[in-house]
């Protein structure tokens, strides 16, 4: 079935017909072939991370479910403090999760349009020796900003801290070697750059860190350690009912990522999409929110061209022409956002820009 419109969003996103078709058969969670598929998915994710020193833990639910599972399972119940380096809604969400779970935290708030800097993080680590863990978002989709997580995590390791990276919107689309970057726990989701559909997320966890997670979890269902133990001991069985159709779609998406040439080639496609989009939107009168050196290839924020501009009308006119975009999310500027990931190429971007120019002429 052909989609009525193209999703220019950071996920859920436009998927290939073959990924959607992979969901056309019902499956049993106890079936050996299904469990083998789970194990194959886990192995492929570890390979994408770049090191066999990691293991993959799959977890039912949205991306936020998996972030909460990680924060609630990785931080010990005693003698732990989390430094959260934030520059947008998703960093702030980690802080909210930690507060609800009664985890001691220190929030480094860099504002909404500034990258998190190594210098600012180091100042926090120097001033508070009780910090044991640090969490940072790779691509903050509030604006589309890309944070230097490798440099931040490498610094944190010099201070002997456990590192947690929310790579929800970037993993699979932006090159990142977990071992080199000194990342202990990386979190992402099925429906982002790997181009699957919503239904589960995953954590790539350094094996030597996982052993210490037993009895940390503040939740029965969001327990990373027990989820991993079950998958390892039963050759791929999930603890509770798993999203069978979604897993098959994700496996197909992993195969298609490999066919495209891996993360590097996908990154190049996304980057070309974003560059062409930015050029065309600026010509149409929409200023960029971020500086080019801050910008990710995932999603781009544009400022309103005039004070009378109506995003709602613009959105509806684009949808009528076959395109769906995102509203803005920052508090101090009137913006909207356009994603450049998923089953999207430069020809799609050209068609979108033509639609924008038509609307702006009316």
Q: Could you characterize what this model shows?
A:
The chain starts with 5 loop residues before the first strand and ends with a helix. It has helices at residues 17-21, 32-49, 63-74, 89-100, 118-127, 149-158, 178-181, 207-210, 224-233, 244-260, 262-283, 311-320, 346-361; strands at residues 6-7, 54-60, 82-86, 105-109, 133-137, 139-140, 145-146, 162-166, 185-189, 200-206, 299-303, 323-324, 326-327, 335-339. 41% of the residues lie in helices and 16% in strands. The chain has 362 residues and is of the alpha/beta class. The radius of gyration is 20 Å and the shape is globular. The chain has 13 helices and 14 strands. The model has no long low-confidence stretch (mean pLDDT 96). The strands form four sheets. The protein has a seven-stranded mixed β-sheet, with helices on both faces. It has a three-stranded antiparallel β-sheet with strand order 11-14-13, covered by helices on one side.
Shape descriptor: globular
Q: What's the end-to-end separation, in Å?
A: 32 Å
Which stretches are poorly predicted, pLDDT < 50 over at least 5 residues? Answer: none
The computed structural class is alpha/beta
Provide mean pLDDT, rounded.
96
Q: Strand order of the main beta sheet, please?
A: 2-10-9-8-5-3-4
Percent helix, as a range, is 40-55%
Q: Determine the number of helices (DSSP H or I, runs of at least 4 residues).
A: 13
* H/E series: EHHEHEHEHEEEHEHEEHHHHEHEEEH
CA radius of gyration is 20 Å
Instruction: Report the count of strand segments.
Output: 14
- Fraction in beta strands: 15-25%
Largest sheet: 7 strands, mixed
């Amino acid at each position: 079935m052909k989609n009525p419109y193209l999703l220019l969003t950071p996920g859920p996103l436009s998927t290939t017909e073959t990924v959607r078709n992979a969901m056309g058969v019902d499956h049993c969670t106890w079936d050996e072939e299904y469990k083998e598929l789970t194990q194959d998915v886990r192995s492929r994710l570890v390979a994408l991370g770049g090191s066999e020193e990691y293991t993959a833990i799959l977890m039912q639910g949205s991306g936020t479910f998996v972030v909460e599972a990680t924060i609630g399972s990785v931080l010990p119940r005693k003698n732990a403090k989390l430094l959260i380096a934030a520059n947008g809604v998703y960093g702030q969400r980690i802080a909210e999760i930690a507060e609800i779970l009664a985890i001691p935290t220190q929030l480094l708030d860099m504002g909404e349009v500034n990258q998190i800097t190594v210098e600012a993080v180091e100042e926090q680590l120097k001033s508070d020796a009780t910090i044991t863990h640090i969490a940072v978002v790779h691509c903050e989709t509030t604006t589309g900003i890309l944070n230097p997580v490798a440099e931040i995590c490498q610094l944190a390791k010099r201070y002997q801290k456990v590192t947690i990276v929310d790579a929800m919107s970037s993993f699979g689309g932006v090159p990142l070697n977990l071992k080199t970057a000194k990342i202990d726990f990386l979190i992402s989701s099925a429906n982002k750059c790997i181009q699957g559909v919503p239904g589960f997320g995953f954590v790539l966890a350094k094996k030597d860190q996982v052993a210490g997670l037993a009895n940390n979890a503040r939740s029965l269902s969001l327990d990373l350690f027990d989820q991993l133990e079950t998958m390892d001991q039963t050759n791929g069985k999930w603890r509770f009912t798993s999203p069978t159709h979604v897993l098959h779609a994700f496996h197909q998406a992993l195969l298609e990522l490999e066919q495209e040439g891996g993360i590097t080639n996908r990154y190049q496609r996304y980057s070309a999409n974003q560059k062409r989009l930015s050029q065309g939107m600026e010509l149409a009168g929409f200023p960029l929110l971020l500086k080019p050196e801050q910008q990710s290839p995932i999603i781009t924020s544009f400022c309103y061209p005039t004070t009378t501009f109506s995003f709602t009308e613009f959105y509806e006119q684009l949808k009528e022409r076959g395109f769906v975009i995102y509203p803005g999310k920052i508090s101090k500027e009137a913006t909207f956002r356009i994603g450049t990931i998923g089953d999207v190429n430069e020809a799609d971007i050209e068609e979108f820009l033509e639609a924008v120019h038509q609307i702006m002429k009316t």
